[in-house]
Design a protein that fits this description.
The structure is a single chain. It is built from 14 helices and no strands. The radius of gyration is 21 Å and the shape is globular. It starts with 7 loop residues before the first helix and ends in a 21-residue tail after the last helix. About 6% of the residues have low confidence.
């Protein structure tokens, strides 16, 4: 990773805290906290143990100078309201000056979707970008501006509405608000149950046979999102990252695989290579973080 100077001018590029965290402007306090914790784990020194010094330094600076300040602005309703007011003011000014011309594909497409689909398209677009925003870390510089652009376009489309309704969860289809009546149906013994997570896993295996590591990573992330309790999914994702020379990410997923199943063969094969402490895995706990600093106490269990 090339050295990035955290100058005042550079930091000004990321003035939208929603975009820094990878959040839609509809996010409430719970979604903000969940995303903050997720990003903090990705930037934690333990997750980057195998990375070079420049990457680790960039992660520390990124957390201290952008991620943590962004969360401080969004963790309370008052802060979110003030930030939305600031973003709306920018939208009005940019609209008046006719400079709100989106550059990214997703933002341009958002302008043309039917009114009834705006919320769903927007939430999905932000979710997709957020998935890749910090993996690898250098993608943050290009993805955060795309999320900011989506936020501005969304607010432009919602300009006539008096308020933005916050949501505790992400994508909510328009039909979800309508009450539905269900008629009990007897189980069909011939019905085939589709395991979508298994399909993603199998596709990942095929991609890895052809050394298409990035595609395999995406399939495995989709599989884990559906069923995060399968150790094989985490182990194979660790292998995919290792094949891309990303030992820090690989170690994280091998550790999770061993936490779920201490006898996972694939994870055990690489445990010594990545200095994974097997004793802690066998005890069902991740290694304790004795370091303080910026991340100290963020993931500590309450007594």
């Amino acid at each position: 990773m090339s050295q990035i100077p955290f100058s005042a001018d550079w930091l000004k590029q990321f003035s939208d805290p929603y975009a820094v965290l990878g959040l839609a402007v509809t996010a409430d306090d719970r979604r903000a906290l969940k995303r903050y914790r997720s990003v903090a784990k990705l930037l934690h020194p333990d997750s980057l143990a195998g990375a070079d010094s420049e990457t680790r330094d960039f992660a520390t600076q990124l957390f201290a100078r952008l991620v943590n300040p962004a969360y401080q602005k969004l963790k309370q309703e008052k802060g979110r309201s003030e930030m939305l007011a600031t973003l709306r003011f920018r939208v009005r000014r940019m609209t008046k000056e006719e400079v709100l011309v989106p550059k990214s594909d997703r933002a341009r497409r958002l302008l043309s979707v039917p009114t009834a689909s705006i919320d769903t398209f927007y939430e999905q677009a932000v979710t997709d970008l957020a998935e890749a925003q910090y993996q690898p870390l250098d993608q943050f510089v290009s993805i955060a501006p795309q999320i900011e652009e989506l936020n501005l376009v969304y607010l432009r489309l919602k300009m006539g509405e008096p308020m933005i309704r916050e949501k505790r969860t992400g994508i909510i289809p328009a039909t979800a608000a309508r009450p539905l009546e269900f008629t009990p149906v007897a189980p069909d013994p011939d019905r085939v149950v589709v395991n979508y997570d298994q399909r993603h896993y199998q596709r990942a295996q095929e991609y890895m046979k052809h050394t298409e590591w990035a595609k395999a990573v995406q399939e495995l992330r989709d599989a884990i999102r559906i069923d995060p309790k399968k150790s094989d999914y985490h182990a194979l994702l660790g292998k995919a990252y290792l094949m891309q020379n990303l030992p820090g990410m690989a170690k994280t997923y091998f550790q999770q695989a061993l936490k779920l199943n201490p006898r996972n063969e694939l994870a055990l094969q690489h445990a010594k290579q990545l200095n994974i402490q097997l004793d802690s895995m066998m005890n069902g706990a991740m290694p304790k973080d004795e370091k303080g600093g910026l991340f100290g106490g963020l993931f500590a269990k309450k007594r």
